[in-house]
Amino acid sequence: MFESLTAPASTMPEPGSAQLSACLTRMLDEIDYGMLLVGADAQLLYCNHAARQELDGAHPLQLIGRSLRALRPQDVLPLQDALDSAQRGLRRLVTLGNGVQRVSVSVVPLPESAAEKARGEGPATLLVLGKRQVCEQLSVHGFARSVNLTPAETRVLELLCSGVRPTAIARQQNVAVSTVRTQIGSIRAKTGAGSISELVRQVAVLPPLVGALRGAFVMGAR
User: Fold this and answer.
1) Angle, CA 207 vertex, CA 210 and CA 22 arms, to 5°
2) Where would you tag: which of 9, 51, 179, 209 has the fewest CB atoms within 10 A of its CB?
3) 132 closest CA partner among 107, 165, 105
4) pLDDT tens digits, residue range 153-212?
5) Half-sphere exposure (Cβ direction) of 5: Cα atoms closer than 13 Å
6) Residue 79: which H helix or E strand, with range?
7) What is the pTM of this model?
């Protein structure tokens, strides 16, 4: 199963080739963290699938046409300062938004290519979007499927990962607290988690490669 990792160098796509660019694009679309590439003028160069889903009307970052902008006036200067710092080769972690929409964004300078230097464009900057919640719904569903949780158990797991207590889950689901505790016990048995906090941690530290579940999840939601 690991033959591709040991393939001769001659079989690998050449750097800068169209084949490699296409592979990288598909690879980035499978990562469940929003990633954007912008030029020196904050104009969008690339946006992966997760970022396209993340940048809704409530996200602290907005795309106006192909221009990256802060949603709140008070976030304009911190964002611009982080982007300017990236042009000087400095990494920044900037926090934007507030409340449930609060999100951290890693602003990473990329080395300037020879082509960019020749055109005087300046180096590109990578922005990696943090999560607005501990456990994304898609991650929860993927995890639930992998350990054979029932739909009811999956919903309980979603709520636990959102910080909802068992008593509140019972009220939301209109069931007895004892029913929710039984479901939690079943979830812990299937996952091997010793506690609710350990259960939530199992989901929170999942690899961000869950793109393959997108189609099945969307169909199941209809």
Assistant:
1) 55
2) 9
3) 105
4) 999 999 998 889 999 999 999 999 999 999 999 999 999 999 999 998 888 877 765 444
5) 2
6) helix 76-87
7) 0.65
Low-confidence ranges of the chain (pLDDT < 50): 1-10, 12, 210-213, 215-222
Q: Which two tokens stand for residue 145?
A: 């499927």
Q: Tokens for 112?
A: 């300037």
Question: Encoding tokens for residue 185?
Answer: 């016990």
Task: Report how far apart, in Å, the C-alpha atoms of 71 and of each of 79, 97, 106 are.
Answer: 10, 8, 17
Contact status, residue 222 vs residue 216, Cβ threshold 8 Å = no
Q: How many whole angstroms from its chain centre is CA 73?
A: 25
Report the C-alpha gap between 71 and 62 in whole angstroms.
6
Six token digits for residue 33: 């963290």
The total of other beta-carbon atoms located within 10 Å of residue 104's CB is: 15
DSSP 144-211: HHHTT--HHHHHHHHHHHTT--HHHHHHHHTS-HHHHHHHHHHHHHHHT-SSHHHHHHHHHTS-S--G
